[in-house]
């Protein structure tokens, strides 16, 4: 059985400005501006008062799920422009001290398990990466960019040939926060 109509609503806070041009959504807040193009999805996006309505007529099951996904993306954009996102990673080592540096859009990881070469992790988008003694902090207003940067750092220190239960060295995400920390 197909549904007649699917609609998901997203409330807009007063401090946020939303512009919708077809399926391109631009959200401006105190932390910055995010623009996202949803033209790949067969949906309608409308602004009515202080809310955004994402909907479609006669959707199939997967199309109905797409409306919920896109409304969640819009909620994350609103949250990012008002508060921002912070991922905290912990540098863990048992014998060889790992040194981490940020350089030209990359995170350089040196002396990982005593290796001579550097391991590199790409910083995605406008994400800011800070290194504080035993912590690496990734911050930004775009959730996808911040989480992908944290995943890139974590994957760069993955133990390949050795037993991962014994060799626990690496950089691991231990906290996800809404809001930018300094």
The domain tally reads: 2
Overall pLDDT confidence = 92
Please report the number of helical segments.
2
Largest beta sheet, briefly?
Answer: 4 strands, antiparallel
Low-confidence stretches: none
What is the share of helical residues?
10-25%
Beta-strand share of residues: 35-45%
- CATH uppermost class of the largest domain: Alpha Beta
Q: Can you say what the CATH homologous superfamily of the largest domain is?
A: Ribosomal protein L6
Structure, explained:
The chain is α+β, with helices and mostly antiparallel strands and 182 residues long. It folds into two domains: 78 residues, Alpha-Beta Complex (Outer Surface Protein A, domain 3); 94 residues, Outer Surface Protein A, domain 3, CATH 3.90.930.12. Helices cover 20% and strands 42% of the residues. The strands form four sheets. Strands 11-12-7-13 form a four-stranded antiparallel β-sheet, covered by helices on one side. Strands 1-6-5 form a three-stranded antiparallel β-sheet, covered by helices on one side. Strands 2-3-4 form a three-stranded antiparallel β-sheet, with helices on one face. The chain is elongated and about 60 Å long. The chain starts with a strand and ends with a strand. The relative contact order is 0.17. The model has no long low-confidence stretch (mean pLDDT 92).
